[in-house]
Structure formats: C-alpha cells, structure tokens
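Human: You know discrete backbone vocabularies at least as well as I do. Show me how you would write down a chain together with its backbone fold. No explanation is needed for now; the record alone will do.

Assistant:
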Amino acid sequence: MSDLPRALRAVLASRVVLASANAGKQREFAELLGALGIELILQSALGIASIAETGSTYEANALLKARHAAERSGLPALADDSGLEVDALGALCRRGRQRARQ
C-alpha cells in the first residue's frame, strides 16, 4: 500500500461494514481487503439486523443490503448477493429462486 498516493491510502485505511452475518464471507473479504488497510466489520457486530432482500436481481439485493448497513452504521458498507441460475430450467429456476428468498 505504500506505493499508493497518500490521499488514496487515507481513504482505504478505514473501517468498512460487511452487510452480512456470514463469518465465512467476512474472512474471505478481510483477506482480500486487509492488504489495503481496510478493517472489515460484520454488521451483526454493530447490532445491525439483516434487511429483507426484496430486489429483483442480485445487484439490487446487494445494493439494498449495503445501503441499509451504511445508513445504520454511518460507515461505508460492502455487500454481495449471489445464487445459482440454470438457463435450461427456464421459469422453474426463477420460481425456485424467488421461493428461496421468501
């Protein structure tokens, strides 16, 4: 990180909330971001409850989660959302994904 401009280092040397209660995700993201001086904190460690994933896409759900954690904590937040989609299953896959979210 020492070869980065000072202003960028100051921004990166901060705390970021991970909008997840998954300790495994925290370990994975912390490993990636630790070299940049970013301390990653689970939202549950700050008493922030999960928000309903009501978005129609993975991106929309990740944004919902990150914005929720950022608003509640006052810190920048990071979130992800993913799943398995199989085009060959067509509508069956979409219905299954929606059922899993309910």
User: Anything to note?
Assistant: DSSP finds four helices and three strands in the chain. The mean pLDDT is 80. The helical segments are 6-12, 23-33, 58-73, 91-101.
